[in-house]
Amino acid sequence: MVLKKIDNVIPKEQTAREQPPEERALLFRLGVYVRMRWLVVLGIIGCTLVASQVFDIGFPTLPVYIICAVIALYNLLFFRWTQSLQKEEAGLVVKKAQTQGNIQILVDLVALTVLLHYTGGIENPFIFLYLAHTIAASIVLPQRQAYILATLAIFMITLVVFLEYADAIPHINLEGFASPDRYKQFSRVVGILFAVATLVYGCTYVVAAVSGELRRRQREMVRLRDQLLEKRTMELEQASNEIAKLEDERRRFARFLGVVAHDLQSPLVATQSFISYILDGFTGTITDGQRDLLERGVRRIDGLLTLITDLLDIPRIETGQIAREMREIALNEVVKRSLEGLDNLAQQKGLTLKVELPESTPKVNGASRRLQQVITNLVSNAINYTNEGTVLVRVVDSDNEVLVEVIDSGIGILPEDLPRLFNDFFRGSNVGSKGTGLGLSISKRIVEAHGGRIWAESPASETKKGSRFAFTIPKKLMAAPEEKRK
Amino acid sequence: MKRKPKILVIDDDVDLVAVMKGTLESKTYEVVVAYNGKEGLEKAKNEKPDLILLDIMMPVMDGFNFAEQFGKDPSLAKIPVLALTSFSDSLGQPFPFQVAEYLRKPLKPKELIAKVEEHLKRKGL
Fold this sequence. Notes:
The structure holds two protein chains of two kinds.
Chain A: H1 2-9, H2 21-54, H3 62-85, H4 93-118, H5 129-140, H6 143-165, H7 186-279, H8 288-318, H9 321-325, E1 327-330, H10 331-338, H11 342-348, E2 352-356, E3 363-366, H12 368-384, E4 390-397, E5 401-408, H13 439-449, E6 454-457, E7 467-474, H14 479-485
Parallel strand pairs in A: 2-4
Antiparallel strand pairs in A: 1-3, 4-5, 5-7, 6-7
Helix pairs in contact in A: 1-7, 2-3, 2-4, 3-4, 4-5, 4-6, 5-6, 5-7, 6-7, 7-8, 8-13, 10-12, 12-13
Chain B: E1 6-10, H1 14-26, E2 30-34, H2 37-47, E3 51-55, H3 63-72, E4 81-85, E5 101-104, H4 109-122
Helix pairs in contact in B: 2-3
Protein backbone atom coordinates (compact mmCIF):
# COMPACT_ATOMS: atom_id res chain seq x y z
CA MET A 1 0.00 0.00 0.00
CA VAL A 2 2.62 2.48 1.13
CA LEU A 3 4.91 1.59 -1.75
CA LYS A 4 2.17 2.04 -4.26
CA LYS A 5 1.40 5.50 -2.96
CA ILE A 6 4.98 6.62 -3.27
CA ASP A 7 5.16 5.31 -6.83
CA ASN A 8 2.27 7.54 -7.67
CA VAL A 9 4.03 10.58 -6.33
CA ILE A 10 7.13 10.11 -8.46
CA PRO A 11 6.31 11.28 -11.97
CA LYS A 12 7.81 8.39 -13.93
CA GLU A 13 6.66 9.71 -17.29
CA GLN A 14 4.80 12.83 -18.08
CA THR A 15 1.91 12.15 -20.38
CA ALA A 16 1.42 15.70 -21.65
CA ARG A 17 4.54 17.81 -21.94
CA GLU A 18 4.56 20.69 -19.52
CA GLN A 19 5.46 24.01 -21.16
CA PRO A 20 8.37 25.75 -19.47
CA PRO A 21 7.60 29.35 -18.42
CA GLU A 22 10.04 30.83 -20.92
CA GLU A 23 8.32 29.15 -23.88
CA ARG A 24 4.92 30.03 -22.54
CA ALA A 25 5.89 33.71 -22.23
CA LEU A 26 7.43 33.81 -25.68
CA LEU A 27 4.43 32.25 -27.39
CA PHE A 28 2.11 34.52 -25.45
CA ARG A 29 4.02 37.59 -26.66
CA LEU A 30 4.00 36.47 -30.28
CA GLY A 31 0.24 36.05 -29.92
CA VAL A 32 -0.02 39.58 -28.56
CA TYR A 33 1.90 40.93 -31.57
CA VAL A 34 -0.51 39.24 -33.94
CA ARG A 35 -3.49 40.72 -32.09
CA MET A 36 -1.81 44.13 -31.98
CA ARG A 37 -1.28 44.01 -35.73
CA TRP A 38 -5.06 43.72 -36.36
CA LEU A 39 -5.52 46.89 -34.33
CA VAL A 40 -2.68 48.60 -36.18
CA VAL A 41 -4.35 47.86 -39.53
CA LEU A 42 -7.59 49.36 -38.25
CA GLY A 43 -5.63 52.28 -36.81
CA ILE A 44 -3.92 53.04 -40.14
CA ILE A 45 -7.25 52.93 -41.99
CA GLY A 46 -8.80 55.18 -39.32
CA CYS A 47 -5.95 57.69 -39.39
CA THR A 48 -6.00 57.78 -43.20
CA LEU A 49 -9.74 58.44 -43.24
CA VAL A 50 -9.48 61.15 -40.60
CA ALA A 51 -6.48 62.77 -42.28
CA SER A 52 -7.98 62.80 -45.73
CA GLN A 53 -11.65 63.43 -44.89
CA VAL A 54 -11.61 65.50 -41.70
CA PHE A 55 -8.35 67.41 -41.99
CA ASP A 56 -8.43 67.42 -45.73
CA ILE A 57 -4.79 66.46 -46.02
CA GLY A 58 -4.01 65.57 -49.60
CA PHE A 59 -2.13 62.37 -50.34
CA PRO A 60 -2.90 59.25 -52.42
CA THR A 61 -4.78 56.87 -50.13
CA LEU A 62 -4.88 53.83 -52.43
CA PRO A 63 -1.29 52.70 -51.69
CA VAL A 64 -2.09 52.98 -47.97
CA TYR A 65 -5.08 50.64 -48.28
CA ILE A 66 -3.06 48.22 -50.38
CA ILE A 67 -0.36 48.15 -47.70
CA CYS A 68 -3.06 47.56 -45.06
CA ALA A 69 -4.33 44.61 -47.06
CA VAL A 70 -0.81 43.21 -47.32
CA ILE A 71 -0.29 43.60 -43.57
CA ALA A 72 -3.61 41.87 -42.84
CA LEU A 73 -2.66 39.05 -45.19
CA TYR A 74 0.73 38.31 -43.65
CA ASN A 75 -0.74 38.70 -40.18
CA LEU A 76 -3.12 35.87 -41.00
CA LEU A 77 -0.10 33.73 -41.91
CA PHE A 78 1.65 34.68 -38.64
CA PHE A 79 -1.51 33.77 -36.73
CA ARG A 80 -1.45 30.26 -38.23
CA TRP A 81 2.25 29.99 -37.58
CA THR A 82 2.05 30.89 -33.87
CA GLN A 83 -0.67 28.30 -33.47
CA SER A 84 1.44 25.57 -35.06
CA LEU A 85 4.29 26.45 -32.68
CA GLN A 86 2.15 25.32 -29.73
CA LYS A 87 2.45 21.75 -30.94
CA GLU A 88 6.17 21.97 -31.58
CA GLU A 89 8.61 19.55 -29.93
CA ALA A 90 10.28 20.55 -26.68
CA GLY A 91 13.59 22.36 -27.02
CA LEU A 92 12.82 23.63 -30.49
CA VAL A 93 10.05 25.98 -29.44
CA VAL A 94 12.22 28.82 -28.13
CA LYS A 95 14.44 28.83 -31.22
CA LYS A 96 11.55 28.67 -33.67
CA ALA A 97 9.58 31.30 -31.78
CA GLN A 98 12.56 33.65 -31.86
CA THR A 99 13.02 33.09 -35.56
CA GLN A 100 9.38 33.90 -36.02
CA GLY A 101 9.71 36.99 -33.85
CA ASN A 102 12.61 38.15 -36.03
CA ILE A 103 10.62 37.63 -39.21
CA GLN A 104 7.49 39.29 -37.82
CA ILE A 105 9.38 42.42 -36.84
CA LEU A 106 11.44 42.49 -40.01
CA VAL A 107 8.35 42.29 -42.21
CA ASP A 108 6.70 44.96 -40.06
CA LEU A 109 9.70 47.24 -40.50
CA VAL A 110 9.54 46.86 -44.26
CA ALA A 111 5.78 47.51 -44.22
CA LEU A 112 6.22 50.56 -42.02
CA THR A 113 8.98 51.94 -44.20
CA VAL A 114 6.92 51.53 -47.39
CA LEU A 115 3.88 52.99 -45.65
CA LEU A 116 5.93 55.94 -44.44
CA HIS A 117 7.24 56.56 -47.92
CA TYR A 118 3.67 56.78 -49.25
CA THR A 119 2.54 59.05 -46.44
CA GLY A 120 5.04 61.85 -46.53
CA GLY A 121 8.29 60.29 -45.38
CA ILE A 122 10.07 62.65 -43.02
CA GLU A 123 6.92 64.82 -42.82
CA ASN A 124 4.89 62.12 -41.14
CA PRO A 125 4.95 62.26 -37.32
CA PHE A 126 4.28 58.52 -37.27
CA ILE A 127 7.97 58.15 -38.11
CA PHE A 128 8.32 57.48 -34.36
CA LEU A 129 6.39 54.24 -34.83
CA TYR A 130 9.81 52.59 -35.29
CA LEU A 131 10.10 52.84 -31.52
CA ALA A 132 7.18 50.47 -31.09
CA HIS A 133 8.89 47.88 -33.28
CA THR A 134 12.21 48.05 -31.57
CA ILE A 135 10.54 47.75 -28.17
CA ALA A 136 8.61 44.70 -29.39
CA ALA A 137 11.84 43.20 -30.75
CA SER A 138 13.72 43.81 -27.51
CA ILE A 139 11.04 42.02 -25.51
CA VAL A 140 11.05 38.74 -27.46
CA LEU A 141 14.56 38.57 -28.89
CA PRO A 142 18.02 38.19 -27.42
CA GLN A 143 19.85 41.49 -26.96
CA ARG A 144 22.13 41.15 -29.99
CA GLN A 145 19.26 40.43 -32.38
CA ALA A 146 17.31 43.36 -30.91
CA TYR A 147 20.23 45.72 -31.64
CA ILE A 148 20.58 44.37 -35.17
CA LEU A 149 16.87 44.98 -35.81
CA ALA A 150 17.14 48.49 -34.32
CA THR A 151 20.07 49.27 -36.61
CA LEU A 152 18.15 47.84 -39.55
CA ALA A 153 15.16 50.06 -38.71
CA ILE A 154 17.35 53.15 -38.60
CA PHE A 155 19.02 52.12 -41.83
CA MET A 156 15.69 51.66 -43.62
CA ILE A 157 14.21 55.00 -42.57
CA THR A 158 17.46 56.79 -43.34
CA LEU A 159 17.59 55.10 -46.74
CA VAL A 160 14.06 56.17 -47.66
CA VAL A 161 14.52 59.70 -46.40
CA PHE A 162 17.81 60.17 -48.24
CA LEU A 163 16.56 58.58 -51.46
CA GLU A 164 13.70 61.08 -51.33
CA TYR A 165 16.13 63.88 -50.46
CA ALA A 166 18.31 63.00 -53.40
CA ASP A 167 15.22 62.70 -55.61
CA ALA A 168 16.09 59.12 -56.43
CA ILE A 169 12.52 58.22 -55.56
CA PRO A 170 9.53 60.56 -55.64
CA HIS A 171 8.54 62.37 -52.46
CA ILE A 172 4.85 62.43 -51.54
CA ASN A 173 3.82 65.61 -49.81
CA LEU A 174 1.08 65.61 -47.20
CA GLU A 175 -0.77 68.54 -48.67
CA GLY A 176 -2.07 70.91 -46.06
CA PHE A 177 -0.11 69.23 -43.28
CA ALA A 178 3.52 69.99 -43.99
CA SER A 179 5.21 72.41 -46.29
CA PRO A 180 6.22 70.65 -49.53
CA ASP A 181 9.92 71.52 -49.21
CA ARG A 182 10.47 70.17 -45.78
CA TYR A 183 12.11 66.97 -47.00
CA LYS A 184 14.75 69.12 -48.62
CA GLN A 185 15.73 70.94 -45.38
CA PHE A 186 18.96 69.12 -44.59
CA SER A 187 19.32 70.11 -40.93
CA ARG A 188 15.71 69.21 -40.24
CA VAL A 189 16.06 65.82 -41.91
CA VAL A 190 19.23 65.02 -40.04
CA GLY A 191 17.76 66.28 -36.76
CA ILE A 192 14.66 64.12 -37.00
CA LEU A 193 16.65 61.07 -38.08
CA PHE A 194 19.06 61.64 -35.21
CA ALA A 195 16.16 61.89 -32.76
CA VAL A 196 14.61 58.69 -34.13
CA ALA A 197 17.93 56.84 -33.99
CA THR A 198 18.68 57.97 -30.44
CA LEU A 199 15.23 56.97 -29.18
CA VAL A 200 15.36 53.63 -31.02
CA TYR A 201 18.72 52.70 -29.52
CA GLY A 202 17.78 54.07 -26.10
CA CYS A 203 14.59 52.03 -25.99
CA THR A 204 16.36 48.94 -27.24
CA TYR A 205 18.96 49.32 -24.51
CA VAL A 206 16.44 49.74 -21.68
CA VAL A 207 13.92 47.15 -22.80
CA ALA A 208 16.52 44.55 -23.79
CA ALA A 209 18.27 44.94 -20.46
CA VAL A 210 15.06 44.54 -18.46
CA SER A 211 13.60 41.67 -20.46
CA GLY A 212 16.99 39.93 -20.62
CA GLU A 213 17.13 40.06 -16.82
CA LEU A 214 13.57 38.73 -16.63
CA ARG A 215 14.44 35.85 -18.94
CA ARG A 216 17.52 35.01 -16.87
CA ARG A 217 15.44 34.94 -13.70
CA GLN A 218 12.84 32.81 -15.34
CA ARG A 219 15.49 30.29 -16.39
CA GLU A 220 17.03 30.34 -12.93
CA MET A 221 13.63 29.67 -11.40
CA VAL A 222 13.03 26.73 -13.72
CA ARG A 223 16.49 25.36 -12.95
CA LEU A 224 15.89 25.61 -9.20
CA ARG A 225 12.50 24.00 -9.52
CA ASP A 226 13.92 21.11 -11.54
CA GLN A 227 16.71 20.70 -9.02
CA LEU A 228 14.22 20.58 -6.18
CA LEU A 229 12.02 18.12 -8.02
CA GLU A 230 14.97 15.86 -8.71
CA LYS A 231 16.00 15.98 -5.06
CA ARG A 232 12.46 15.18 -3.94
CA THR A 233 12.23 12.28 -6.34
CA MET A 234 15.49 10.89 -5.05
CA GLU A 235 14.38 11.28 -1.44
CA LEU A 236 11.11 9.53 -2.18
CA GLU A 237 12.87 6.69 -3.91
CA GLN A 238 15.21 6.35 -0.96
CA ALA A 239 12.31 6.38 1.46
CA SER A 240 10.43 3.73 -0.47
CA ASN A 241 13.53 1.52 -0.55
CA GLU A 242 13.88 2.03 3.16
CA ILE A 243 10.26 1.05 3.71
CA ALA A 244 10.64 -2.04 1.56
CA LYS A 245 13.70 -3.05 3.56
CA LEU A 246 11.92 -2.54 6.87
CA GLU A 247 8.91 -4.45 5.63
CA ASP A 248 11.21 -7.27 4.57
CA GLU A 249 12.89 -7.29 7.96
CA ARG A 250 9.54 -7.27 9.68
CA ARG A 251 8.37 -10.25 7.67
CA ARG A 252 11.53 -12.16 8.49
CA PHE A 253 11.09 -11.33 12.16
CA ALA A 254 7.47 -12.46 12.11
CA ARG A 255 8.54 -15.75 10.53
CA PHE A 256 11.22 -16.11 13.18
CA LEU A 257 8.65 -15.54 15.92
CA GLY A 258 6.41 -18.12 14.30
CA VAL A 259 9.17 -20.73 14.40
CA VAL A 260 10.07 -19.80 17.99
CA ALA A 261 6.44 -20.14 19.05
CA HIS A 262 6.11 -23.49 17.32
CA ASP A 263 9.36 -24.92 18.67
CA LEU A 264 8.79 -23.73 22.23
CA GLN A 265 5.18 -24.78 22.43
CA SER A 266 5.14 -28.07 20.53
CA PRO A 267 7.04 -30.08 23.15
CA LEU A 268 4.86 -28.64 25.90
CA VAL A 269 1.68 -29.36 24.02
CA ALA A 270 2.87 -32.89 23.29
CA THR A 271 3.80 -33.42 26.94
CA GLN A 272 0.37 -32.23 28.02
CA SER A 273 -1.24 -34.64 25.60
CA PHE A 274 0.83 -37.53 26.98
CA ILE A 275 -0.13 -36.64 30.54
CA SER A 276 -3.78 -36.40 29.56
CA TYR A 277 -3.54 -39.98 28.23
CA ILE A 278 -2.43 -41.12 31.65
CA LEU A 279 -5.11 -39.00 33.36
CA ASP A 280 -7.80 -40.34 31.04
CA GLY A 281 -6.82 -43.89 32.06
CA PHE A 282 -5.48 -45.06 28.72
CA THR A 283 -2.46 -46.55 30.46
CA GLY A 284 -4.34 -48.18 33.33
CA THR A 285 -5.73 -46.84 36.56
CA ILE A 286 -3.76 -44.32 38.60
CA THR A 287 -3.84 -43.46 42.29
CA ASP A 288 -5.24 -40.16 43.58
CA GLY A 289 -1.73 -39.07 44.55
CA GLN A 290 -0.47 -39.68 41.03
CA ARG A 291 -3.49 -37.84 39.59
CA ASP A 292 -2.86 -34.84 41.87
CA LEU A 293 0.78 -34.53 40.82
CA LEU A 294 -0.01 -35.00 37.13
CA GLU A 295 -2.75 -32.37 37.31
CA ARG A 296 -0.34 -29.94 38.95
CA GLY A 297 2.08 -30.68 36.13
CA VAL A 298 -0.57 -29.89 33.51
CA ARG A 299 -1.38 -26.62 35.25
CA ARG A 300 2.27 -25.59 35.34
CA ILE A 301 2.63 -26.36 31.66
CA ASP A 302 -0.51 -24.31 31.02
CA GLY A 303 1.11 -21.40 32.81
CA LEU A 304 4.27 -21.78 30.76
CA LEU A 305 2.29 -21.95 27.51
CA THR A 306 0.48 -18.75 28.47
CA LEU A 307 3.77 -17.07 29.28
CA ILE A 308 5.27 -18.06 25.93
CA THR A 309 2.18 -16.84 24.10
CA ASP A 310 2.26 -13.54 26.01
CA LEU A 311 5.98 -13.03 25.48
CA LEU A 312 5.68 -13.62 21.76
CA ASP A 313 2.60 -11.41 21.56
CA ILE A 314 4.58 -8.34 22.64
CA PRO A 315 6.94 -8.21 19.64
CA ARG A 316 4.08 -9.17 17.33
CA ILE A 317 2.03 -6.20 18.52
CA GLU A 318 5.01 -3.89 18.55
CA THR A 319 5.90 -4.70 14.94
CA GLY A 320 2.50 -3.50 13.83
CA GLN A 321 0.53 -6.73 13.54
CA ILE A 322 -2.63 -5.03 14.81
CA ALA A 323 -2.71 -2.39 12.09
CA ARG A 324 -2.63 -5.19 9.52
CA GLU A 325 -5.49 -7.06 11.16
CA MET A 326 -7.75 -4.00 11.41
CA ARG A 327 -11.09 -3.94 9.70
CA GLU A 328 -14.56 -2.67 10.51
CA ILE A 329 -15.97 -4.73 13.35
CA ALA A 330 -19.19 -4.77 15.33
CA LEU A 331 -18.14 -4.35 18.94
CA ASN A 332 -21.17 -6.06 20.51
CA GLU A 333 -20.26 -9.27 18.70
CA VAL A 334 -16.66 -9.00 19.84
CA VAL A 335 -17.79 -8.65 23.46
CA LYS A 336 -20.15 -11.63 23.16
CA ARG A 337 -17.41 -13.79 21.69
CA SER A 338 -14.96 -12.67 24.39
CA LEU A 339 -17.31 -13.86 27.10
CA GLU A 340 -17.80 -17.37 25.69
CA GLY A 341 -16.74 -19.78 28.40
CA LEU A 342 -16.29 -17.03 30.97
CA ASP A 343 -19.92 -17.18 32.16
CA ASN A 344 -19.26 -20.82 33.09
CA LEU A 345 -16.25 -19.72 35.08
CA ALA A 346 -18.30 -17.04 36.84
CA GLN A 347 -21.05 -19.51 37.60
CA GLN A 348 -18.58 -21.96 39.11
CA LYS A 349 -17.51 -19.21 41.53
CA GLY A 350 -21.12 -18.25 42.26
CA LEU A 351 -20.74 -14.84 40.58
CA THR A 352 -23.21 -13.04 38.36
CA LEU A 353 -21.79 -11.95 35.01
CA LYS A 354 -23.85 -9.04 33.74
CA VAL A 355 -23.50 -7.61 30.23
CA GLU A 356 -24.89 -4.25 29.11
CA LEU A 357 -24.60 -3.56 25.39
CA PRO A 358 -25.96 -0.63 23.36
CA GLU A 359 -28.98 -1.53 21.23
CA SER A 360 -27.31 -0.85 17.93
CA THR A 361 -23.83 -2.28 17.86
CA PRO A 362 -21.04 0.31 17.68
CA LYS A 363 -18.79 -0.11 14.64
CA VAL A 364 -15.09 0.52 15.06
CA ASN A 365 -11.98 -0.08 13.03
CA GLY A 366 -10.17 -2.78 14.95
CA ALA A 367 -8.48 -6.15 15.17
CA SER A 368 -11.34 -8.27 16.45
CA ARG A 369 -9.21 -11.15 17.75
CA ARG A 370 -7.00 -8.73 19.69
CA LEU A 371 -9.86 -6.74 21.21
CA GLN A 372 -11.40 -10.04 22.19
CA GLN A 373 -8.13 -10.84 23.94
CA VAL A 374 -8.31 -7.55 25.91
CA ILE A 375 -11.90 -8.09 27.02
CA THR A 376 -11.29 -11.75 27.92
CA ASN A 377 -8.26 -10.68 29.92
CA LEU A 378 -10.11 -7.96 31.86
CA VAL A 379 -13.16 -10.12 32.56
CA SER A 380 -11.20 -13.20 33.60
CA ASN A 381 -9.11 -11.00 35.92
CA ALA A 382 -12.32 -9.61 37.39
CA ILE A 383 -13.70 -13.12 37.93
CA ASN A 384 -10.41 -14.35 39.42
CA TYR A 385 -10.20 -11.52 41.93
CA THR A 386 -13.85 -11.47 42.95
CA ASN A 387 -15.20 -13.90 45.48
CA GLU A 388 -18.81 -12.80 45.60
CA GLY A 389 -21.14 -10.37 43.89
CA THR A 390 -21.15 -9.39 40.26
CA VAL A 391 -18.91 -8.68 37.33
CA LEU A 392 -20.42 -6.13 34.96
CA VAL A 393 -19.30 -5.71 31.35
CA ARG A 394 -20.67 -2.55 29.76
CA VAL A 395 -20.24 -0.97 26.36
CA VAL A 396 -21.04 2.75 26.04
CA ASP A 397 -21.27 4.22 22.56
CA SER A 398 -20.54 7.93 22.02
CA ASP A 399 -19.84 10.15 19.03
CA ASN A 400 -16.11 9.74 18.72
CA GLU A 401 -15.29 6.62 20.67
CA VAL A 402 -16.62 3.49 22.28
CA LEU A 403 -16.05 2.88 25.98
CA VAL A 404 -15.78 -0.66 27.32
CA GLU A 405 -15.95 -1.08 31.10
CA VAL A 406 -15.45 -4.07 33.37
CA ILE A 407 -16.64 -3.40 36.93
CA ASP A 408 -16.31 -5.96 39.70
CA SER A 409 -17.09 -6.19 43.40
CA GLY A 410 -13.84 -7.98 44.16
CA ILE A 411 -10.81 -7.46 46.34
CA GLY A 412 -9.77 -4.29 44.50
CA ILE A 413 -6.29 -2.96 43.86
CA LEU A 414 -3.97 -1.45 46.45
CA PRO A 415 -3.49 2.31 45.86
CA GLU A 416 0.30 1.89 45.57
CA ASP A 417 -0.18 -0.75 42.89
CA LEU A 418 -2.45 1.37 40.67
CA PRO A 419 0.26 3.33 38.82
CA ARG A 420 2.27 0.19 37.99
CA LEU A 421 -0.69 -1.95 37.01
CA PHE A 422 0.00 -1.90 33.27
CA ASN A 423 3.77 -2.48 33.54
CA ASP A 424 5.34 -5.64 32.14
CA PHE A 425 5.54 -8.48 34.67
CA PHE A 426 3.65 -6.53 37.31
CA ARG A 427 1.61 -8.64 39.71
CA GLY A 428 -0.60 -7.15 42.41
CA SER A 429 0.77 -7.38 45.94
CA ASN A 430 -2.54 -8.71 47.25
CA VAL A 431 -3.20 -11.47 44.73
CA GLY A 432 -0.47 -14.08 45.11
CA SER A 433 1.39 -15.09 41.95
CA LYS A 434 -1.40 -15.92 39.55
CA GLY A 435 -0.76 -15.16 35.89
CA THR A 436 2.23 -14.04 33.88
CA GLY A 437 2.05 -10.37 34.79
CA LEU A 438 1.84 -9.60 31.10
CA GLY A 439 -1.93 -9.70 30.52
CA LEU A 440 -2.61 -6.04 31.33
CA SER A 441 0.55 -4.75 29.69
CA ILE A 442 -0.40 -6.58 26.51
CA SER A 443 -3.96 -5.23 26.77
CA LYS A 444 -2.51 -1.73 27.05
CA ARG A 445 -0.40 -2.26 23.93
CA ILE A 446 -3.41 -3.56 22.01
CA VAL A 447 -5.66 -0.68 23.04
CA GLU A 448 -2.98 1.89 22.28
CA ALA A 449 -2.32 0.34 18.88
CA HIS A 450 -5.99 1.12 18.20
CA GLY A 451 -5.43 4.73 19.24
CA GLY A 452 -7.39 4.24 22.48
CA ARG A 453 -6.69 4.56 26.22
CA ILE A 454 -6.96 2.05 29.04
CA TRP A 455 -7.09 2.79 32.76
CA ALA A 456 -8.16 1.36 36.10
CA GLU A 457 -9.69 2.68 39.30
CA SER A 458 -10.18 1.04 42.63
CA PRO A 459 -12.60 1.18 44.27
CA ALA A 460 -14.91 1.66 41.29
CA SER A 461 -16.38 5.18 41.59
CA GLU A 462 -19.83 3.85 40.70
CA THR A 463 -20.10 1.06 43.29
CA LYS A 464 -17.54 2.23 45.89
CA LYS A 465 -16.01 -1.23 45.93
CA GLY A 466 -13.93 -3.61 43.83
CA SER A 467 -12.34 -2.11 40.77
CA ARG A 468 -13.22 -0.72 37.40
CA PHE A 469 -11.18 -1.24 34.23
CA ALA A 470 -12.08 0.79 31.19
CA PHE A 471 -10.75 1.32 27.72
CA THR A 472 -11.77 3.37 24.72
CA ILE A 473 -11.53 2.65 21.03
CA PRO A 474 -11.84 5.68 18.73
CA LYS A 475 -14.29 5.29 15.89
CA LYS A 476 -12.84 5.25 12.40
CA LEU A 477 -9.27 5.72 13.51
CA MET A 478 -7.66 5.45 10.08
CA ALA A 479 -10.45 6.64 7.84
CA ALA A 480 -11.10 10.05 9.37
CA PRO A 481 -7.96 11.99 8.39
CA GLU A 482 -8.02 10.51 4.88
CA GLU A 483 -11.56 11.59 4.29
CA LYS A 484 -10.70 15.10 5.40
CA ARG A 485 -7.89 15.23 2.90
CA LYS A 486 -10.25 14.34 0.08
CA MET B 1 -18.15 -57.00 8.23
CA LYS B 2 -17.93 -53.26 7.68
CA ARG B 3 -14.49 -52.03 6.63
CA LYS B 4 -12.44 -50.07 9.10
CA PRO B 5 -12.67 -46.30 8.59
CA LYS B 6 -9.30 -44.95 7.50
CA ILE B 7 -7.86 -41.84 9.18
CA LEU B 8 -4.89 -39.82 7.97
CA VAL B 9 -2.92 -38.04 10.71
CA ILE B 10 -0.65 -35.22 9.50
CA ASP B 11 1.56 -33.76 12.22
CA ASP B 12 5.29 -33.08 12.48
CA ASP B 13 5.46 -34.15 16.13
CA VAL B 14 6.58 -37.79 15.97
CA ASP B 15 5.65 -38.57 19.58
CA LEU B 16 2.25 -36.99 19.27
CA VAL B 17 1.56 -38.87 16.04
CA ALA B 18 2.51 -42.13 17.74
CA VAL B 19 0.11 -41.51 20.60
CA MET B 20 -2.73 -40.38 18.37
CA LYS B 21 -2.18 -43.42 16.17
CA GLY B 22 -2.32 -45.71 19.22
CA THR B 23 -5.49 -44.09 20.50
CA LEU B 24 -7.29 -44.26 17.21
CA GLU B 25 -6.16 -47.82 16.46
CA SER B 26 -7.47 -48.89 19.87
CA LYS B 27 -10.86 -47.79 18.55
CA THR B 28 -10.54 -50.05 15.47
CA TYR B 29 -9.66 -47.30 13.02
CA GLU B 30 -7.05 -47.80 10.35
CA VAL B 31 -4.47 -45.03 10.74
CA VAL B 32 -2.09 -43.66 8.12
CA VAL B 33 0.45 -41.06 9.19
CA ALA B 34 2.41 -38.30 7.51
CA TYR B 35 4.97 -35.99 9.08
CA ASN B 36 4.63 -32.94 6.85
CA GLY B 37 2.18 -31.33 4.50
CA LYS B 38 3.84 -32.63 1.35
CA GLU B 39 3.82 -36.21 2.49
CA GLY B 40 0.29 -35.72 3.77
CA LEU B 41 -0.92 -34.56 0.38
CA GLU B 42 0.53 -37.64 -1.34
CA LYS B 43 -0.98 -39.98 1.23
CA ALA B 44 -4.34 -38.21 0.97
CA LYS B 45 -4.33 -38.88 -2.78
CA ASN B 46 -3.10 -42.47 -2.59
CA GLU B 47 -4.85 -43.76 0.50
CA LYS B 48 -8.21 -41.95 0.12
CA PRO B 49 -8.78 -41.64 3.87
CA ASP B 50 -12.26 -41.07 5.36
CA LEU B 51 -11.02 -38.28 7.61
CA ILE B 52 -7.89 -36.16 8.02
CA LEU B 53 -6.39 -34.77 11.21
CA LEU B 54 -4.18 -31.87 10.16
CA ASP B 55 -1.72 -29.94 12.26
CA ILE B 56 -1.65 -26.36 11.01
CA MET B 57 1.87 -25.37 12.03
CA MET B 58 4.44 -27.66 10.46
CA PRO B 59 7.82 -27.25 8.79
CA VAL B 60 7.99 -28.37 5.10
CA MET B 61 4.68 -27.18 3.71
CA ASP B 62 2.57 -26.10 6.64
CA GLY B 63 -1.13 -26.66 7.07
CA PHE B 64 -2.00 -23.55 5.11
CA ASN B 65 -0.02 -24.62 2.06
CA PHE B 66 -1.35 -28.12 2.40
CA ALA B 67 -4.89 -26.82 2.49
CA GLU B 68 -4.28 -24.71 -0.58
CA GLN B 69 -3.09 -27.71 -2.61
CA PHE B 70 -5.70 -29.94 -1.06
CA GLY B 71 -8.51 -27.52 -1.90
CA LYS B 72 -7.55 -27.57 -5.58
CA ASP B 73 -8.10 -31.32 -5.89
CA PRO B 74 -11.80 -32.05 -6.36
CA SER B 75 -11.33 -35.76 -5.65
CA LEU B 76 -10.24 -34.86 -2.11
CA ALA B 77 -12.87 -32.24 -1.44
CA LYS B 78 -15.30 -34.61 0.26
CA ILE B 79 -12.85 -35.73 2.94
CA PRO B 80 -13.55 -33.88 6.21
CA VAL B 81 -10.46 -32.20 7.68
CA LEU B 82 -10.11 -31.59 11.41
CA ALA B 83 -7.50 -28.88 11.87
CA LEU B 84 -5.35 -29.04 14.99
CA THR B 85 -4.32 -25.59 16.11
CA SER B 86 -1.56 -25.12 18.57
CA PHE B 87 -1.77 -22.94 21.61
CA SER B 88 -1.23 -19.53 20.06
CA ASP B 89 -1.28 -20.14 16.33
CA SER B 90 -2.18 -16.98 14.59
CA LEU B 91 -5.34 -17.53 12.63
CA GLY B 92 -5.13 -13.96 11.38
CA GLN B 93 -5.09 -15.23 7.82
CA PRO B 94 -8.14 -17.00 6.46
CA PHE B 95 -7.75 -20.72 5.91
CA PRO B 96 -7.76 -21.47 2.19
CA PHE B 97 -10.55 -24.00 2.29
CA GLN B 98 -13.43 -25.14 4.44
CA VAL B 99 -12.23 -27.01 7.49
CA ALA B 100 -14.80 -29.30 9.17
CA GLU B 101 -13.71 -28.17 12.62
CA TYR B 102 -10.81 -26.57 14.45
CA LEU B 103 -9.53 -28.55 17.43
CA ARG B 104 -7.21 -26.85 19.85
CA LYS B 105 -4.14 -28.64 21.13
CA PRO B 106 -3.43 -30.12 23.63
CA LEU B 107 -6.10 -32.56 22.69
CA LYS B 108 -7.35 -34.96 25.31
CA PRO B 109 -7.71 -38.51 23.97
CA LYS B 110 -11.40 -38.72 24.86
CA GLU B 111 -12.08 -35.50 23.01
CA LEU B 112 -10.13 -36.70 20.01
CA ILE B 113 -12.11 -39.91 19.76
CA ALA B 114 -15.41 -38.11 20.30
CA LYS B 115 -14.69 -35.63 17.52
CA VAL B 116 -13.50 -38.29 15.11
CA GLU B 117 -16.58 -40.40 15.75
CA GLU B 118 -18.85 -37.40 15.34
CA HIS B 119 -17.47 -36.46 11.95
CA LEU B 120 -17.36 -40.01 10.68
CA LYS B 121 -20.95 -40.50 11.72
CA ARG B 122 -21.91 -37.46 9.65
CA LYS B 123 -20.40 -39.22 6.67
CA GLY B 124 -22.40 -42.32 7.55
CA LEU B 125 -19.46 -44.43 8.66
